[in-house]
Predict the 3D structure of the following.
Amino acid sequence: MYRTNSISAAIAAARAGIDFAPLPCAVADRTLDLFRTAMFPEDFRLDLWLLTHEGLRNTTRVRAFMDFMADTLATDADVLEGRRPQAGPLPTTTP
């Protein structure tokens, strides 16, 4: 058994055939040389809470950020919850 708290190390271990890796769908589904060994149940949902301090929740910048995040997360829900497999590779950067 291989243990790590690093997503990139878990991906590398899975690619090397060291072990299975429980990875976030939004990352692993875009890693083309990995594949799922099991699918989520049809009724699977991911609960995610956006929290802020009560005194800041209605300030313009915090409200704009919260609205942006809520819209973005709703738009990408299928990817985040694993309902859209093999979304394509993540962009890579070169130093």
User: Anything to note?
Assistant: The chain is about 35% helix and 0% strand.
